[in-house]
TrEMBL record:
One of the GO biological process terms: xylan catabolic process
Substrates-to-products reaction catalysed: Endohydrolysis of (1->4)-beta-D-xylosidic linkages in xylans
Domain of life: Bacteria
Annotated protein name in UniProt: Beta-xylanase
Domain GH10: 1-296
Keyword Hydrolase: yes
Keywords: Carbohydrate metabolism, Glycosidase, Hydrolase, Polysaccharide degradation, Signal, Xylan degradation
This enzyme's EC code(s): 3.2.1.8
GO molecular function annotations of the record: endo-1,4-beta-xylanase activity
Residue range from the parent sequence: 11 to 307 of 458
Homology family: Belongs to the glycosyl hydrolase 10 (cellulase F) family.
Length: 297
């Protein structure tokens, strides 16, 4: 296959990218994105600060811009994200306790109602664990340890057809405490019937470190709990070809690894642009890492 999306589709997977609404007018960006990918995540436009800037007043303009652009071109869309300690609107940052708990529930209901039946998946909860494997402290965590399962139960009721994912970073290494913390939560959710369908591993790999040799073990271990896994925000310092090939191969080797999303199109579009971590250079040309990914799919 001649594109990332088509190559991934040969094994029933997708290959996606983060899209920024503000860049869609850039023809190189839009052309490369529409040609190569078959899944899209809004880089910022479906986050709580974007979708509910004032309490109870929802704003879907930029999220819909991305949704419409993608679906008009045959690309699917992942929703990102409903409950997160970061990128909360100011009004939410200043809430706590039962008021924040209710605001979280109302937010999930409001956003999911708008996109009901339209998305492939939602990252319902993002980045709720600390590096030591315990829960990250946040205003949401302070509302009670059950905030994550309440978010998932609310989400399932709001849109029964969309896949519900837990998403986090630094959960790629199987022996890492944070990976184990997330794994134990998913195991507990599955044993108690808390609705969850997928785990997103952000896969932001940083310099020097090679691909964890147990990365595939992490993917297959999560999958063995009865959830799909996906690599949701991939970028790699200097776009190491071996790391890109390795992470792609790990996904391909695990039947329930359903797709890979890179966190941007060209290096200059990346939140880590100084590390040139993506698959296309600033001219929209394919880098060596592109070929290593395509060959591994
Ligand atoms: C990043 C975006 O890429 C930036 O544009 C923004 O300023 C901050 O957020 N984990 C996530 C993503 O789940 O939403 C983050 O995206 C990167 C880290």
């Amino acid at each position: 296959a001649g594109t990332l999306g088509a190559a991934a589709a040969q094994s029933g997977r997708y290959f996606g990218t983060a899209i920024a609404a503000s860049r869609l007018g850039d023809s190189t960006y839009a052309t490369v994105a529409a040609r190569e990918f078959n899944m899209v995540t809004a880089e910022n436009e479906m986050k709580p600060d974007a979708t509910e800037p004032q309490r109870g007043q929802f704003s879907f303009n930029s999220g819909d811009q991305i949704y419409n652009w993608a679906t008009q071109r045959g690309l699917k869309v992942r929703g990102h994200t409903l409950a997160w300690h970061a990128q909360q609107p100011g009004w939410m940052q200043s809430l706590g306790g039962s008021a924040l708990r209710q605001a979280m529930i109302d937010h999930i209901n409001g956003v999911m109602a708008h996109y009901r039946g339209k998305l492939a998946a939602w990252d319902v909860v993002n980045e709720a664990f600390a590096e030591n494997g315990s829960r990250r402290s946040s205003n949401l965590q302070s509302t009670g340890n059950d905030w994550i399962e309440v978010a998932f139960r609310t989400a399932r009721a709001a849109d029964p057809s969309v896949k519900l994912c837990y998403n986090d970073y630094n959960i790629e290494n199987w022996t890492y405490a944070k990976t184990q913390g997330v794994y134990n939560m998913i195991k507990d959710f599955k044993s108690r019937g808390v609705p969850i369908d997928c785990v997103g591993l952000q896969t932001h790999f940083t310099g020097g470190s090679s691909l964890p040799s147990n990365f595939q073990t992490t993917l297959s271990s999560f999958a063995a709990l009865g959830v799909d896994v996906a690599l949701t925000e991939v970028d790699v310092t200097n776009a190491s070809t071996s790391q890109y090939a390795g992470l792609t191969q790990a996904c391909v080797n695990v039947p329930r690894c359903i797709g890979i999303t890179v966190w941007g199109v060209r290096d200059g579009d990346s939140w880590r642009s100084s590390e040139s971590p993506l698959l296309f250079d600033n001219g929209g040309n394919k880098k060596a890492a592109y070929t290593s990914v395509l060959n591994a799919l």
